[in-house]
Amino acid sequence: MEKNSQQLTRTMTSRHITMMALGGAIGAGLFKGSSAAIDMAGPSVLIAYLLGGIILLFVMQGLAEMAVRNKEARTFRDLVQSVLGKYPAYFLDWIYWKMWVLNIAAESVVAAIFIQYWLPEYPIWILALSVSVLVTAINLLSVKIFAETEYWLALIKITVIIVFIIAGLILLLVSFGHHTAVGFSNLTEHGGFFPNGSMGLIAAMLVVIYSYGGTEIIGITLAETKNPEKVVPKAVRSTLVRIVTFYLLPFFIIVSLIPWNNVNGVPESPFVMVFKMIGIPGADHIMNAVVLLAIISSMNSGLYGSSRVLYTQAVDGRVPKIFGYLSKRKVPVYAILMCTVAMYLGVILSLYAGSKTFDFLMGSLGYTVLFIWLIIAIAHLKSRKKQAENTSAYEVKWFPYTTWIAIIALSAILIGIIFTTSIIITGITLGIYLFITLSYVLKGRYQENE
Fold this sequence. Notes:
By secondary structure, the chain is mainly alpha-helical. It has helices spanning 14-25, 28-31, 34-41, 45-69, 76-84, 86-116, 124-141, 143-173, 197-212, 228-257, 270-278, 283-315, 333-349, 356-386, 401-420, 423-449.
């Protein structure tokens, strides 16, 4: 292969990576995970999402600063390795890869379930296979086509959420026809604002962290972004404002309009329930289509992120070189195809697990997002000492206080989640982490003996 064929091209702009981060974060976690989070915390789920948004802000600011200081970085593994060393970077790379491949596997099945709403005569595995082929094709075409597709998918989701917010506020505040303004009594009735106490709030944090996970995909786009030192900080700022807005306001409307204890156990999404209250004809079909697009968008971002991790591993000689091959369109073809194997495994799993696949994997994925954020925050904390001589146009205000707050908060959430999460999910996640660690140790010994 020629040398220039192994370099990714910088074709993505600020609008692309901003929408891409939104596509990764505003997905099934919002539309499908909302019921679980509300069931755990009741109206106090609003505090959970606010806390999660603040933590995310502090972590992403650190990521943006490190990206500006290290202009040669291709992914956030390069940012972390230059500060913390090889093992944390290796661990980060592989848990991030694991997060996305498990996520796209689970979401291929979930997407099929939503399609089956219209096509009940088709089995889930055929529909999951169809979605998987579509997402694979989008990623194989070119980075620009992928970015444009993700941009428009994310834009559709955001438009519908905005309509949802406006309509919900009208239902809450305005009386018209036979409708009486609902007001805010549901926030304190039915057991109060904290119906399940502090433990309910802590348990919901796992869903919250999982839901916000995906925003850090900005750190994977560094090698394919024009002027990353300018674009990344701008994208981080705009993305965070939008994510907190698009989570907090919809949840505020849901728990205000609908008693929190009426949300879970209902086959409909809370979003469908609210749209039906508005009286929009075919609300169930509209929201089914939106949720489907949200999941495909998240899968799209996930396949991109996981394939770029595998690509950079191949370029650095950590995995077989074939995964570092780029097509004429500058797309890592074999890395993408390898990651799509997860989707097709999801198709096989759908024959046995069906819709339970997503719910089971969400816990493990939540743990992974927690560790990713922790590693990024710790790296940022130490990066100023390592790169003290490198001044940049973008620096985090109130450093190191914001970073320390993020680290302490994430550590506290981790401890709380360990005590509130199924021992099976915790055990499986720990097993995966031990396997990654063992592979690092064995690989180091192998290289020493060469």
